[in-house]
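Lecture 7 notes. Example A: sequence first, then its structure tokens.
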Amino acid sequence: MATAAEPRDYTTGVDPERALKYAIQHMQGDRVEIIEGVIQGGCGEVRPPTWDHEDTTEVIRDQVKPRARELGCITGSGNLDFPKTANWYVPDFAVVPRELASGAGALLPDQTLLVVEVTSQSNAETDRVVKRKRYAEYGAPLYLLVDRISREVTLFSQPGQLGYEAADGPHPFGTPVRLPEPFDLVLDTTELK
């Protein structure tokens, strides 16, 4: 005589962080992020960046890219994971060593050389406060915040558990901003929008 199957307990052995991060990697959309446990993007939820946003990002990327190549790095908008948190970011762009990027599904912030976020009306406070704190906490050595709302650029460095210990700026658009070693270049911000 067959007996009814015992009900299975699905509440044990499931890692909610892993499940959430797995789920967003399989959602439709180019920029699906988890910011403090809230899924942002995917399934048409997030409006694509404006052309001004893209232009601003490209102005910075075009200046950084030749030096990144010299350093054996690539620039891109790949996934950044923040283990033991419900955070998974897709920066406007980051500079990462080519050998780390090869075959990687996601990198950690401390594996980057530079992370760049460009604000939009919908995400300005997230980029200014939340992402800045998390990038520092997880060791991203340089965080460049291009604030299109206030029309300022700030370079944060010296990451620590309580945030970045150094900030160069905010500088109004049009002010040259120096990226330190390993870049050792001055960004022209006159064309930022």
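Example B, a different protein, same format:
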Amino acid sequence: MAPPGPEWTSQLDLEFSAGDENAMAAAYRSFSPIVYTVALRALGDHAAAADVTQDVFVRAWRFRSSFDPEAGAVPAWVLGICRNVVLDSLSARSRQQHVVVRSGIAPGSGAAQERGVDTITDRVVLGSELELLGEPQSSILKLAFYEDLTHEQISARLDLPLGTVKSHIRRSLVHLRHRLGEWNAAS
């Protein structure tokens, strides 16, 4: 991770440790993408990475009194929490697989049903958010993620300039990240 940018300061470290909710929100905005990326690379599962990201920031807030601004900065502390949560998740996954193998149950049968409800909910929310984007953004993102087309393929299929496709994707993802973050916070 790059050193904290100009948006993260030692003053925010102090405010965070003092329990300032705005500092926590700033930490989430600044560091949730890197936490999510680390978790996704370690776990290889988008849902698990999202769960880890949420757990990291819940733990950071819950245990903020143990953060010492004199000993380090919030970004490093959050990544330390991330490391621990990822390791816990990998350990739990390993234990779960071991139990499944020993029980003789087909892998994923119970877990798949539990995730089914979350998956359906996520699809409904994502679908409605994609529709709210309007055209051509909605079509572009659907082609990119549901049909796994490259930017060049989307450009050719929709007869749009490549730069326009890339711009729409970038702006739409920023918008969706913000909107879905609000939805996850409310649920």
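Note on Example B: The radius of gyration is 20 Å. Residues 1-6 have pLDDT under 50 and may be disordered.
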